[in-house]
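Title: Comparing notes on inverse folding

I've been comparing how different people in this forum approach sequence design from structure. To keep things fair, I'm posting one structure and asking everyone to reply with a full sequence. Here's the target:
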């Protein structure tokens, strides 16, 4: 002890590590499509206009200060977030049956949920889609919560493997916890249809599973907040017990501000009070209380009708730009007569394209073409621009031949 020579060097994070490699690359052609962060068509990070306006309002508001928030965060913010998830007319909200804490973005929400499971459902496994955003698994691992995969991806048809998914949900012990991507599944870009969601719901209901909606892309799948909350709201209306982790990183562009929530539905409003009192203790011992600035931005936008509309328009514009890039990439691959079928590039939704490139092909994209993407074939379409799309298509064409 003392010189810490016993500490081995850790491998780079599979997603953040790619961005570090990108930064270190001096090739002028380099492209970063590894991280799920929106870029303008000029390849620049975007601060939304509604966010800038909200920040100005916050700066001018002389009643605000830098005092601590309570452990659970800002309760007005939490109530606005609940409405965004469950809907204005939600009976659960009217009955006061949802416990919500402000969190350090989506990752902090997932970790808080894991801490809750460890204490109040010890030994219960969380079932996670295969594939998924890799951090889902590692958060459970680091929190000491058992986790298992369920089938999700039909590799051959590049689509949802509904039968496999339903089989695995049926085979899980009654009362398991099922992690579901609320909208814009990461990394596949394939969401269940309404009918498929209904089938998933019936199985989960019959099995008494708790469904954990991870909502990191509300508004990015269809461009519409309500449509992207379809499954969550339907499950809530049908009385399934729910967890929800919510992130404002992508849909507000507040990546580094760390703004999110963790919610769970409870059987009574008294239980909500007990659950929140325990959340306060868990949070107190993790990081004491959450930061204020990002939550103030979201609160300001969600409670001002004009800013709210402006945000919705900006969110739509971001998702439309991504859809446009899907089309351009697809057209270019067709023009190049790139071997294989590429229809999935335009069929998939959300921020990512699960290209179907093999680990070797993905590696060649990075090492030969300086296009930083994930080893599982995931390309962030949010980083594709008019300026780099032809280069990306040419590189794909090269590595698949
Ligand atoms: N959940 C999913 C599926 C994600 O893809 C992400 C981010 O990429 C998150 C949660 C959480 O991100 P953050 O902690 O930045 O809100």
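Reply #1:
Here's my take.
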């Amino acid at each position: 002890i003392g010189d810490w020579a016993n500490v081995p060097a850790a491998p780079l994070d599979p997603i953040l590590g790619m961005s570090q490699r990108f930064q270190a690359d001096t090739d002028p052609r380099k492209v970063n499509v590894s991280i799920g962060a929106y870029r303008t068509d000029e390849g620049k990070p975007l601060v939304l206009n509604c966010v800038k306006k909200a920040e100005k309002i916050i700066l001018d508001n002389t009643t605000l200060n830098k005092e601590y928030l309570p452990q659970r965060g800002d309760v007005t913010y939490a109530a606005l977030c609940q409405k965004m998830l469950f809907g204005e007319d939600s009976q659960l909200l009217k009955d006061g049956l949802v416990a919500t804490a402000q969190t350090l973005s989506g990752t902090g929400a997932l970790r808080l949920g894991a801490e809750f499971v460890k204490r109040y459902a010890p030994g219960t496994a969380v079932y996670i889609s295969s594939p998924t955003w890799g951090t889902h698994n590692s958060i459970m691992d680091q929190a000491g919560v058992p986790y298992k995969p369920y089938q999700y991806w039909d590799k051959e048809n590049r689509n949802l493997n509904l039968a496999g998914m339903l089989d695995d949900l049926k085979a899980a012990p009654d009362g398991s916890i099922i992690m579901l991507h609320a909208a814009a599944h990461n990394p596949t870009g394939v969401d269940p249809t309404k009918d498929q969601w209904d089938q998933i719901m019936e199985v989960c209901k019959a099995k008494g599973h708790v469904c954990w909606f991870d909502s990191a892309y509300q508004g990015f799948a269809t461009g519409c907040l309500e449509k992207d909350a379809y499954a969550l709201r339907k499950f809530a209306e049908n009385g399934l017990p729910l967890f929800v982790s919510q992130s404002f990183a992508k849909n507000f562009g507040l990546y580094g501000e760390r703004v999110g929530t963790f919610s769970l539905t409870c059987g009574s409003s008294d239980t909500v009070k007990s659950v929140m009192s325990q959340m306060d203790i868990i949070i107190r011992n993790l990081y004491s209380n959450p930061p204020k600035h990002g939550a103030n931005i979201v609160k300001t936008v969600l409670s001002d009708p004009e800013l709210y509309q402006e945000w919705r328009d900006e969110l739509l514009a971001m998702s439309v730009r991504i859809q446009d890039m899907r089309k351009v990439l697809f057209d270019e691959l067709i023009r190049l007569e790139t071997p294989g079928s590429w229809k999935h590039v335009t069929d998939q939704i959300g921020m990512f394209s699960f290209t179907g490139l093999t680990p070797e092909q993905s590696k060649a994209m990075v090492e030969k073409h300086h296009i930083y993407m994930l080893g599982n074939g995931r390309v962030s379409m949010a980083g594709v621009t008019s300026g780099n799309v032809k280069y990306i298509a040419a590189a794909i064409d090269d590595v698949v031949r």
